[in-house]
Amino acid sequence: MINGVGVVTVLGGSLMPPEVIAAMEEAGRYFIPLPELQKKVGARLAELLQAPAAMVTCGAASAISVGTAACLSQGDPAKLRQLPGREGIKYEVIQQKSHRSGYEHQMEMAGAKVIAVETREELLNAINERTGMLFFLNKGEPHGKISGEEFIKIGKEKGIPTMNDCASDAVPKENLWKYTKMGYDLVIFSGGKALRGPQASGLLLGRKDLIEAALPAMSPYGGIGRGMKVGKEEMCGLLAAVERYLKVDHDAEWKILEGRVASIRAALQKTKGVETAQYIQPIQNQVPHVTVKWDEAARNLTSQQVTEKLLASDPPIHVQRPGKGELLISVWMMRGNEHEIVGRRLKEIFSA
Ligand SMILES: *Cc1c(COP(=O)(O)O)cnc(C)c1O
Fold first, then answer.
1. Does one domain contain both 287 and 235?
2. Relative to the CA of 64, which ligand 1 atom is closest?
3. pLDDT tens-digit readout, 211-243
4. Cβ neighbours for 11, distance < 8 A, ≥ 6 positions apart
5. pTM of the model
6. Predicted pLDDT at 87
7. Cβ of 192 below 6 Å from ligand 1
8. How far apart are CA 301 and CA 324, in angstroms?
9. Contacts with 191 (C-beta within 8 Å, 6 or more apart), sequence order
10. Per residue in 146-156, pLDDT tens?
């Protein structure tokens, strides 16, 4: 298939560059005490990403679970063993309604009860002696009534840890340290998205005591996240991916993406009634995309019909359909001349 959606878990995340594959392959040839490797890789990641501490998880969703377990158990092994049981646990997690992420279950499995609020006032009223964590969805920032800065300030004033899920916000690369420096206690990135690490990897960054509390929550220890094993291959693979990501010429990559956008737009240039543009989302996956817009009635062609035709192509082409008469195409994960195939196919569909 051709991936015109971008870095999304369901389509396979991203593709690992040779350095990452080599690191995984090498790791697969040695034995090593896993807790020792986790600590050393974590220390190196923390240094590279300017965070107080770091650990590798088996995905951003797994980081949410073990991060929540860390906040709820506060480094107390008895409390950690008890999760998801709530007796004596500060189990309430507060988030903004507009920050519902679809990953609430990952907090609930650690024992959390998720409470939704809208305003600063509601947040302050919702905080009580059972509050164990405040959850922020980074891409939700423009939609919420409470800004990240206010959220952090309230967390600090009340002594409640804040977690920011930035899973798909590793572009620009400065974001990798921006949010820990802003003051979030825990910050999460997906390893298998923009970082191009192993798909089953994630990063949990933040306060040293919380990372230390999160480690025993996960494999190979017997905590609530024992089923979320991170292998030596994923640890070494993610470290190699981060090292590469910090060195890559992002401006040169950006130009390649703009070239692909221009190529798809050029293919549709002479198709009457079809408007294309280069589009960069304000937050999340901030890279050049192509938007294609037309009047469905005038062309007697719906965006659903176009996406069906693209999926029925050989190879199948996956793109997003944000609304009527509209396509959103990500060129980020396209390989070789795939953008040319997409442009040709779109032209055929619109010219038929
Ligand atoms: C992709 C994503 C996740 C899950 O990431 P995995 O690495 O697949 O576990 C969590 N939160 C957000 C906001 C995401 O975009």
1. no
2. 10
3. 999 999 999 998 899 999 999 999 999 999 999
4. 1, 3, 5, 318
5. 0.95
6. 96
7. yes
8. 10
9. 56, 59, 60, 197, 198, 199, 200, 201, 202, 203, 234, 237, 238, 241
10. 999 999 999 99
